[in-house]
Amino acid sequence: MKLKNNINQSFIHIFFWIFTIVSLVPFILVFMVSITDEDSIIANGYSLFPSKINFAAYAFLFNDFSQIAKAYGVTILSTLVGTVVSLAVTALFAYPLSRAELPFRRSLSFFLFFTMLFSGGMVPWYITYVNLLGLKNTIFAMIIPSLLLSAFNVLLMRSFFAGSIPESIVESATIDGATEMKIFMKIVIPLSLPIMATIGLFNTLAYWNDWYNCMLFIDKPELYNIQYLMTKTLTNVQYLIMKSGTSSQAGDLLAKMPRETVRMALAIVGIAPLLVAYPFFQKFYISGITSGAVKG
């Protein structure tokens, strides 16, 4: 019996090792292509083992390092502030909806669900943030429009509050004289770390990868975030490729510039900070999941 269990455990370990390696292959391929010589890619195509190493793509991207640094700063600031505030807004919206005694709870839940099916449209949405709130060319333009990132997150958190927070604990705290805010901060939030950690991770990825709001609301290059800066750079490269056949000047510039490798370098530059930071925050994410487990 023990031997059978050991064999099963070995197969499970081997399976997950293989799954992990297969999952890493695309990332490794993107990085290897980004440091491959452009002529080698044209001749031999993409390869995990480049015949000639060349960092020309990164030299091209970091030609103006100050702009890259500013873009990273804007992205980090908007991600940190946006994630914390949006998580608070989601929790403060979801918790009342989970309480059966809330008046018009079903109507509010339907209103929230309705926003998942229909929207007000791009024009009124844009006018509201630009003319009414004055967010044009401000850092808040990349934070406020996405504060309530998804109605689905609210419904998910509401379901967790309703199903995982014992009503008896809330009633006991109420009898002891605790206010609703104290119950929320001292009881509900500590017991809800798993869903808070999960939705917080979703919000972090959404803010970090956001380029759309920057494209709509930002005209000043010093306020570009890293994703929009990379998107703009890729667009410029594609424009030069299209113009290379009609303009000798563009053709000369394109001949000196990496094309295939710069696309992969853009992906690495955009995702590298998350890959570096995630191992340091992984223990907090796991701790948030395990701390909400039932004990005793």
Q: Which descriptors would you attach to this protein?
A:
MetI-like fold, Sugar ABC transporter permease, mainly alpha, 296 residues
Tell me about this structure:
The chain is mainly alpha-helical. The chain has one domain (about 25-290): MetI-like fold (Orthogonal Bundle). It is about 75% helix and about 0% strand. The protein contains 14 helices and no strands. It has helices spanning about 1-35, 40-45, 55-60, 65-100, 105-115, 120-130, 150-165, 165-175, 180-190, 195-210, 210-215, 225-245, 250-255, 260-290. α10 runs antiparallel to α14 (about 260-290). The longest helix has about 35 residues, at about 65-100. It is flat, with a radius of gyration of 25 Å. Residues about 290-295 have low confidence and may be disordered.
SSE diagram, text form:
Blueprint (H helix, E strand, L loop, with lengths): L1 H33 L3 H7 L11 H6 L3 H34 L6 H13 L4 H11 L18 H14 L2 H9 L4 H12 L1 H16 L3 H6 L8 H18 L4 H8 L4 H31 L6
Membrane topology: Multi-pass membrane protein
Family: Belongs to the binding-protein-dependent transport system permease family.
InterPro entries: MetI-like, MetI-like_sf
Taken from the alpha-carbon principal axes, the silhouette is flat
Indicate the proportion of strand residues. under 5%
Spell out the CATH superfamily: MetI-like
Q: Distance between the terminal alpha carbons, to the nearest Å?
A: 29 Å
Q: Provide the low-confidence segments as ranges.
A: 288-296
Number of strands: 0
Biggest sheet record: none
Total individual domains: 1
Overall average residue pLDDT:
80
Structural class: mainly alpha
